[in-house]
Known about the structure:
By secondary structure, the chain is an all-alpha fold. It has a domain at 35-64. Helix content is 86%, strand content 0%. The protein contains two helices and no strands. The longest helix has 28 residues, at 36-63. The model has no long low-confidence stretch (mean pLDDT 94).
Amino acid sequence: MAQLTQMELLQVHELLRAEELARHKCRMYAQYAQDPQIKQLLHQSEQQHQQHMQTLISQLQSLA
Length: 64
């Protein structure tokens, strides 16, 4: 696989930051949620964002 340009690396970094922020928000909102279904949905969303982060990190590691 080809090396990433500096701009592409910056974009991937921004994607990772966005996923981390979304994961953090889901976790925080789940703590305040009263409805069990909403709480479960937020936990699922948090896990999904974590998986997205892991996928991005794995892709970066495969380039090294």
